[in-house]
Design brief:
mainly beta; three-stranded antiparallel β-sheet; globular; membrane; TRG_var/const_region
Length: about 140
Amino acid sequence: LHFSPGSPEETPLHKMLFLPAAALCCLCSALAAMAKHLSQDDLTFTKRVGHTVSFSCGGTDQCGSNVVTWYQKKETDTFRPILYITSGGSTSKPFNHPQENDFIAERNQDNCELKINLVKLDHSASYYCSCRKSGTHSEK
């Protein structure tokens, strides 16, 4: 899906941002293989610089009272944690991510959302959510 107002002629390429949502990524052990996994739509977003984008993570009801952590994965880098959000909706940013102030998160009983209110070119990356459930990981 592409979300970009205007035609390509009206929107110079250097003013657009390509944000691929993550493909399924599960770290499965014998215990985790039987567990439910978090789900993210496998979407690719193209947003204009300065606009808003959000990524949704479903199935967070299985996380219980454990936190949901959001990660950024740029093409040539490793997974970098951005923030985590509690089941009560409180966020914490203890990871010293260089763009941490650009991100906010919201969480309800079975869904979590990561938002970038003012998209910049250097936000181009894949975004993953993760939580821990009873000693196993459920990741997307």
